[in-house]
Amino acid sequence: MPPTTSVKPRAVVLSGPSGSGKSTLIAELFKEYPTAFAFSISHTTRSPRAGEQNGREYHFVARSDMENMLNRGEFLESTEFSGNLYGTSKKAVDDVAQTGRICLLDVDKQGVKNIRKTNLSALYIFISPPSYEILEQRLRGRQTENEAAIEKRLKEAKESMEFSKEPGMYDHVILNDQLEVAYQSLKNILRKDIDGVLEQQKATNTAK
Ligand SMILES: Nc1ncnc2c1ncn2[C@@H]1O[C@H](COP(=O)(O)OP(=O)(O)OP(=O)(O)O)[C@@H](O)[C@H]1O
């Protein structure tokens, strides 16, 4: 039998204000489809923490090496945080696609802008909270940020909501009011992508 031609799955870029529910929805996808999705491994110039392994949590690189890679245009998006560079390389995303999984990218609006400028084949989805009041409640309920961080996130949320209306940025907007409804919408949007990946995996396993 001729080998089945495998098509590399396209990446999925998820964005939305902090607290809108991206991690929650992504966790649901991983739970229901443990083999269909994966995250790419980012690069960073920060030092590895105890227990972290190069190529697993991050690709740990020297600043000069990362700057050279940036100059060569090897990153889809990058940012500086607390004096360290972080970025998603084109190769890291392609590495996930090579394994036959859908690469999930959870990025802010600047990340979306930057990735849109590249030739990455991806679907762009915005996760929207039902209102600022509910977003605030969820951020407070999560108990992961102090007051200053919550204020900062709420301010950024306004900008991110405005940005979501810019034409040509997002392919879909999902309103995360009832979690189950939002999750079903996300699955419907990704239906063909998920089925394609699972069929491909089935064919590969059968051929083994
Ligand atoms: N539909 C929903 N109804 C009620 N609570 C929700 C819903 N979706 C998410 N939450 C809760 O809201 C909080 C924020 O969600 P989550 O951490 O997934 O946001 P996020 O977009 O990943 O934020 P960040 O960008 O800061 O990581 C969590 O405590 C989560 O359990």
From TrEMBL:
Region annotation Disordered: where it falls in the sequence: 1-20
Enzyme Commission number: 2.7.4.8
Class of enzymatic activity (EC top level): transferase
PROSITE patterns: GUANYLATE_KINASE_1, GUANYLATE_KINASE_2
Superkingdom: Eukaryota
Classification via CDD domains: GMPK (cd00071)
Keywords: ATP-binding, Kinase, Nucleotide-binding, Transferase
GO cellular component, one term: cytosol
PANTHER family linked to this entry: GUANYLATE KINASE (PTHR23117:SF13), GUANYLATE KINASE-RELATED (PTHR23117)
Protein name: guanylate kinase
Species, as recorded: Adineta steineri
